[in-house]
Structure formats: C-alpha cells, structure tokens
C-alpha cells in the first residue's frame, strides 16, 4: 500500500491535491494497536517529555470513568492500570446506569500550568437517564484526579439530544475554543446509531469560545459542520488544529461507530469559525488494514494523532503521524 492516501479530494481540489502529492514523503505512519485493552475515543496531550492519552470508560471495568495511558516515545504505551482520572461524578450526572457512561475525555493545559478535562456523561436533568452532556473538571497535575467544576454541565442542549465529544483548542493568538458534537442521534428515529431512519436528526459540530480558564464561555456557539447525506447518520468526535500557514483542520468521524463505515474525516478553513470544507476520510476501514477507525484527537503540534479502531471484542488505541499541505492531510 502506498504510504499516502488519496481519498480526501473533492473534485474541485484534485489539481491542488496532485500538485502537493509528489512532495509528500512516503512512509508508514499509522501504528498499532498500541493499547489493546478497550480504550476508545482517546485524546492526546504532551507534557514535557511524556505523551498522555485519556479514554472512555472501558467495557471491562465500569467503575473506572476515565482511563489514562502514557508514552515517552509515542510508540510504546503503558496503561495506568486501575487509575481513574475523574473518580467523583458531580450531581448533574446520573450514575444509576453504568456509572454515568462516561465518554470521550479531552485534556487541555491552561496558561497557568493547570489542566481542564472535558468529558461526556449521562445527565439526570432530562429525567430519562439516557442523554449525555459535556462536563468540565480541573486538576493541577495532568493525570488528575480531576475535580468537577460546579454542579452543572458545561454544555447541555437536551432539547437537541445533549452533547458529547468536547475537545479543547488554543489558537496561535491564544484564543481558546471548545469543539463538541450535539448528540442528535440520541433522539433519532432508529437504525444505525439511532439516526439511520428518516427524519434524520442533525448532529452538528459546534465551536464555543472560552476564556483563558477553558470554562467561562465567551459569546454563544457557532455551528461548523453538520451531518449531510455523505456522512451517513452522524458526524462526531471533532478535534481542531492550526497549521503554521494559517489553515485550520477540523478532524471528525462520520457514520456510526458500530459499523465498518466509521472513519476519521477532516475539513479545512481559514478561520476557526469556518466556513469549513469537508475532504472525506483520512482513515477508514481497509486503510492500513484498520477496522472502523474513528474518535481521533490531534495534538496541538499538528503532527501526532491518536484514534481507535475495532480490535478483538473492543476498540483499541492506534497512533498516526500526520502531515498537512494546504487542504491535504496524509497519514
Ligand atoms: C437515571 O437513570 C436511570 C437508569 O437509566 C433511570 O431509570 C432514571 O430515571 C434516571 N434518573 C433521572 C433523574 O433521570
């Protein structure tokens, strides 16, 4: 297999893509699984000489809300066995069912050196014990333990299905944002991911500016993308980065995570608020022999990415080293 992937072009960008392709070094950039235990929706942050990965509550131990793994070289990863980055749930979380079903954490460092974690958990404010919302928690050490901020969620549009998959982004000018998914398929009409039957419910990816604390909202949210016919029922798992030339890359997954159509797709823009143009999958079933890759998070260096793919009976963590050139992303 070629070491670069030409799957991402819209017709209008083909000439741009081919003019860049010859400059892309050919190498195998995806590795894994690097964590074989069920370790879905990993997020990435590098602190000094160590990479940290945070993942969704595992199937094998529902008492752990947020898993942690680390690596010195981005190659060999060690799970902190039994560790829970978020041991105590705030009162807005319904822990009756599956300990809150805690999903898709993301850790960001603040300018004062402390850390903010965004996570998704089942809210009890909707009264039905099934809709997720996004919470925020803080810690002085990257591995936690993280303590919930206040008694309420950070983002919780239950009338639209709730919210999940929040991810922090600090722009070059130090402006901070959080991207997240409105979890519309949670109130969908059945089928794949409960959103494959018309009328399809929107699952927009939103951008919320926040203050330096990562939590205080500045203005209201902006919609960056939503699920259209090319995405199957869902877009989710957003992660944003900026390249040195000023292009903004929004990685996301389309289709349902429980199907082979799940992927790591991306869109680009010249401002964090968009408008974003979608460029199809970077990783999909078959790429590097992956099975249902998705849930990616890119490091703020714009080069290192974590994602999960189906492996055995769970979702294992993989790594990717990516390169960008204009509207082309390669792995
Ligand atoms: C909490 O979740 C349980 C189990 O799903 C559900 O029966 C209960 O109604 C939920 N409680 C609230 C306040 O939503």
TrEMBL record:
Keyword entries, A-Z: Glycosidase, Hydrolase, Signal
SUPFAM superfamilies linked: Arabinanase/levansucrase/invertase (SSF75005)
Superkingdom to which the source organism belongs: Eukaryota
* Classification via InterPro entries: Glyco_hydro_43 (IPR006710), Glyco_hydro_beta-prop_sf (IPR023296), Glycosyl_Hydrlase_43 (IPR051795)
Question: What's one Pfam family the UniProt record gives for this protein?
Answer: Glyco_hydro_43
User: What residues make up the catalytic site?
Assistant: 41, 236
Q: Which residues does the annotation list for site: Important for catalytic activity, responsible for pKa modulation of the active site Glu and correct orientation of both the proton donor and substrate?
A: 165
The Swiss-Prot or TrEMBL record annotates one GO molecular function as:
hydrolase activity, hydrolyzing O-glycosyl compounds
Could you tell me the Gene Ontology terms of the biological process aspect for this record?
carbohydrate metabolic process
Q: Does the keyword Signal apply?
A: yes
Signal peptide per UniProt: 1-23
Q: Does the keyword Signal apply?
A: yes
For this chain, the family text in UniProt reads: Belongs to the glycosyl hydrolase 43 family.
Q: What name does this protein carry?
A: Glycoside hydrolase family 43 protein
């Amino acid at each position: 297999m070629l070491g670069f992937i030409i799957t991402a072009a819209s017709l209008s960008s083909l000439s741009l893509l081919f003019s860049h392709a010859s400059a892309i070094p050919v190498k195998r950039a995806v590795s894994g699984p690097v964590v074989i235990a069920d370790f879905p929706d990993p997020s990435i942050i590098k602190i000094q000489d160590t990479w940290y990965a945070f993942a969704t509550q595992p199937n094998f131990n529902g008492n752990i809300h947020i898993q942690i793994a680390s690596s010195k070289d981005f190659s060999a990863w060690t799970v902190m066995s039994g560790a829970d980055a978020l041991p105590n749930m705030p009162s807005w979380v319904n822990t009756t069912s599956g300990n809150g079903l805690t999903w898709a954490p993301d850790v960001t460092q603040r300018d004062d050196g402390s850390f903010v974690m965004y996570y998704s958990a089942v809210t009890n404010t909707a009264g039905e014990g099934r809709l997720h919302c996004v919470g925020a928690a803080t810690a002085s050490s990257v591995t936690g333990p993280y303590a919930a901020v206040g008694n309420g969620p950070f983002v919780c549009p239950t009338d639209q299905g709730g919210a999940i998959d929040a991810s922090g982004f600090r722009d070059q000018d130090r402006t901070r944002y959080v991207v997240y998914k409105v979890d519309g398929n949670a109130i969908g009409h059945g089928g794949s991911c409960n959103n494959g039957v018309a009328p399809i419910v929107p699952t927009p990816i939103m951008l919320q500016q926040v203050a330096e604390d990562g939590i205080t909202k500045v203005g209201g949210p902006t919609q960056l993308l939503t699920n259209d016919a090319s995405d199957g029922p869902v877009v989710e798992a957003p992660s944003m980065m900026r390249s040195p030339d000023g292009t903004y890359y929004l990685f996301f997954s389309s289709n349902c995570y429980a199907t082979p159509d799940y992927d790591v797709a991306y869109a680009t823009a010249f401002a964090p608020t968009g408008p974003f143009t979608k460029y199809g999958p970077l990783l999909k079933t078959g790429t590097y022999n992956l099975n249902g890759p998705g849930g990616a998070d890119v490091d703020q260096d714009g080069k290192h990415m974590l994602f999960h793919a189906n492996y055995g009976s769970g979702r294992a963590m993989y790594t990717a080293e990516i390169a960008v050139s204009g509207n082309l992303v390669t792995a």
